[in-house]
Amino acid sequence: MNKISKSKIALIHVAKDKLGLDRWEYEQILAAAGVTSSTDLYEDGFRVVMSKFKELGFESVSKYRKPAPRRTLGGATLSQIDKIKYLWRDITGHALTTPDHRATLYTFLYKHNRDLRHYDDLIEIWNHLDGRTAHITIKILMDMKEKAHGQNTTG
């Protein structure tokens, strides 16, 4: 059986500090797990210590992890799709509010991404866009934006 990892030892110290435990209180909790130092803990002792901290009101930081990004059916994140829309609007001045503006973006995506050629409209493309293709599309649009802004400043 192996001793607990350094990250679990660090978590114990975070909990101790957040709870404002003094040395004596901390040593009592470690004693309940049968050790005098967190570096001597094994997994079962770690669970005892964390249980004691929980009784005192500590909640593990892991509960506050950032949620995984929402994705389309194809795997692109909604943030990637928003970035494509933003860049497109910035380059063309169109906010995709009319069918013509949406058709122009659809044509662009269709032209630059062979994998998307079998989808009939922009909604289908968004639903099936994969992360890699979205990343490439964003890169193309960012390059176009740089070139467009570069031409505006030199002229």
Describe this structure in words.
With 155 residues, the protein is mostly helical. The chain has 2 domains: 6-64, no CATH class; 78-154, no CATH class. It contains 7 helices and no strands. Helix 1 packs parallel to helix 3 and helix 4 packs parallel to helix 7. The termini are far apart.
* Cα-atom radius of gyration: 27 Å
What can be said about the biggest beta sheet?
A: none
Mean pLDDT: 82
* Silhouette: elongated
N/C terminus separation: 71 Å
Structural domain tally: 2
| Strand count | 0
Q: How many helix segments?
A: 7
- Assess the beta-strand content as a share of residues: under 5%
State the helical fraction. Answer: 55-70%
Order of helices and strands: HHHHHHH
Contiguous low-pLDDT stretches (5 residues minimum) are none
Please tag this protein with its features:
155 residues; mainly alpha
Short description:
With 155 residues, this protein is an all-alpha fold. It has helices at residues 6-19, 23-32, 43-55, 78-92, 99-112, 122-128, 131-154.
